[in-house]
Amino acid sequence: MSNNISTPSNAPATTYNKKVAIVGAGSMGRSIAICLAMHQIPTVIQARSLERQKRAIPLLEQSLAECGEIFGWNEDEQKELLNRIKVTVDNADLALADIVIEATSGTLEEHKELYRDLDAVLRDDTVIASITSSISITELSNATERPSLVAGMHFFMPVPLIDLVEIVSAQHTVQETLDQIQELCDAMGKETVYVEDSPGYIVNRMLIPMINEAITELAQGIGSIEDIDRAMRIGANHPMGPLELADWIGLDTCLEILEGLFAEFMDSKYRPHPLLRRKVRAGQLGRKAGVGFYRYKEEE
Ligand SMILES: NC(=O)c1ccc[n+]([C@@H]2O[C@H](COP(=O)([O-])OP(=O)(O)OC[C@H]3O[C@@H](n4cnc5c(N)ncnc54)[C@H](O)[C@@H]3O)[C@@H](O)[C@H]2O)c1
User: What domain range is 121 assigned to?
Assistant: First the structure.
């Protein structure tokens, strides 16, 4: 976990000078923007609609306050960080970007449509880095006229705290694209690993089946939510229990990742437990919904 950032004001000046835009004002888009702001990199977040643009500001303030408690930022410092983030619905902001981080939810078809639209709006040399946990980067790159400039940049929630990024090389990705993503990761203080485009990459292929197993234990009445989490925190020395981690990730995202693993490998070890499906159907998606395995205060 990051321990080299204390306050926004004393962070070292960045030499990174490329323009970064994020598409998607959801939990990951906001978390990435805060991490960029912590490292003095201004960002534009492209929201899907005016309504989502309006909603994003109080949600960003809330996320900044949560990070502030961890990093010890005061209100002025939180404002300073917020000033480095612009939320927009204007394509003109995207057209200026050197690198676009795509952080949207949706199906493969919805993503392909978005990539075709982005292709038309962005400069020809702009890199698109997808943070998807569940969709093939090669499929996304094939929807564009710039497949060599598309790669994966897989962050972990909460982004300001978790130092790893998996850089994902798709079928047509060229080295210069990976270099640009590495340069941005360096500027954000992230550690990186390189991985081929494959469901779950390195971490989620192990982590999400473990979360699914914790859900199975819960459904079978083996232990309470609190005890399953406490057992893994203390017994396996994990910083977070699997069920609280699932709430951070989002239960919909956990389900999507398992479905992707199951579809690719046809192995029953990746079959999502019905309790996970039931919670997603009920809208109990974790922190972003105010309730998952635990109950949180409402986001808005
Ligand atoms: N949650 C995690 O821990 C995690 C970790 C790594 C990667 N991811 C990936 O991050 C992506 C987003 O996940 P999230 O947890 O932020 O979900 P989320 O539901 O909180 O946010 C998704 C956002 O995308 C927006 N969106 C959808 N289509 C759009 C479009 N065409 N244009 C602009 N915005 C659009 C939605 O309005 C929403 O605000 C997913 O691809 C997921 O696989 C998630």
Answer: 20-196
